[in-house]
Amino acid sequence: MPRPTTAQLAYGSCTVILSTLAMLLLSQTSSGVGIAVIALSALALGLLVALTVPLPKPARKPAPGATAARRARTSASFAAPASASASASASASASVAVESEAVRKPVREHTGS
Fold it and tell me: Model pTM?
């Protein structure tokens, strides 16, 4: 089970505190059983609110060829003048094909003694 987010904790805690105060003031109960029922119902309401807060969506990973294509498009649009757009698109297509074939691996340097 994932850990609750800050928003879930904040909404749940505020709901418990405010609903407990509101129910105690509105019911004007002074018995121990009444206070216990109000406290339990406030906790249940706070838990319900905390669980229904929308969770952040995980970031999607781009497709492997998408980054190379985007990089080629960006470099081609900045480097090519307006009159040479046809040759730029052809060279961009060629560079995308070359870059998609070569897989870059991160270089790890040994820094320990």
Answer: 0.47
